Predict the 3D structure of the following.
Amino acid sequence: MKYALLSLAFLLLAVGLSLILRRASMKARGAQTDTAPTSTAWRGTVRIAGVNEGAVLIASAALLVLTAVFDSLMIASNLFTYSESLISGIRVGLAPIEDFAYPVAMVILLPALWVFLRSQPAISVRLLLKHAFVVSRPVSWINTAFPFAAGYLMSTREVDWILVVGTLYYLVPYNLAMYGINDVFDYESDINNPRKGGLEGALLPPSYHQPMLWLCWWSNVPFLVILLAVGSPLSVLAFAISTFAVIAYSAPILRFKERPFLDSLTSSTHFVSPALVGITVAGAQLDASVAVLLLSFFCWGIAAHAFGAVQDIGPDREAGIGSVATVVGARKTVVFSLVMWGVAGLLMLSTPWPGPLAAVLALPYLINCAPYLRVTDETAATTNAAWRRFIWLNYASGFLVTLLLILEWTTRSS
């Protein structure tokens, strides 16, 4: 696809979304004017106004200048390359003119989104963004961005704009959607869960539920459109699986998180599918070794979700929420998790060198989980200590996996 055509599609999408948001803002403001035009508290949280045009112009100029400067620097450093057959040839510095479509699209879309969010009654945009930061689980951003980046980079062997855009998407917007939908529809059980409200999950006030869902939607759609446009039929399928899993896990009616064993399968898909997307967007072949590696990662994800569900047996049962742990019981779920982590390690032994070295990474998870083999449903909450260690184990494992990828890179290059 010509780069200009992709840029035009992105601009048209931004214009379309902007018009929809502005129309919705006008309706919301009209409704608020009819119902509460003189409320001091209401005026303190939502001010009926547009945006500061001067600020938008200054921000636009800054974005365009920064795009020209940093794109030129990255191109000069050979971080990005463009096929001359796919661009118009018009450049600002070293940056193709098509690159400027993205900051222009943001200038069109973000003010409309800002006005829309401000038009929602009884919410503060600043607090919404603060809630969004907590909801997206920053400590877990790397768990989805890394698989995409590793899958794409190890397939293409180059850093390009698709890698940057895809990594940014799986770093923040994807996590905002995954956890935002969950926190909205799990609110009734979360208010009785002592571990919610911080590192392990937000406790989102009901007045922010609808705005948060809108924010999840509009922060994801632009990235998905771009990545779908540059992909293949196989990558479109991978995106469909990934997006469906994010929605189906927590959204009403589907609620896969309340279907024992399907909950663990869906949760694992949340983390494995970004790697699959990265590989397929790069156009790489899904050979047997890649399939085994992804299957090992999938078993790891199943184990992680099942073990994490043990600590929530009490709150989940009180709220009438089913899970693999509430149905099977704490002890059997721990055994199941140990088996899955063991299988993940064994599968890595059958991958090409240096893949077998990664089998050792299953050991810390097994050691962390094993002391709870005698846990009961009544003492299930005590596994939270191991779950907190699990979060930091992921960082250590990620570091070691990075070293293995570097080793694989140098081995193949030589």
User: Anything to note?
Assistant: Residues 34-49 have pLDDT under 50 and may be disordered. DSSP finds 18 helices and two strands in the chain. The longest strand covers residues 91-92.
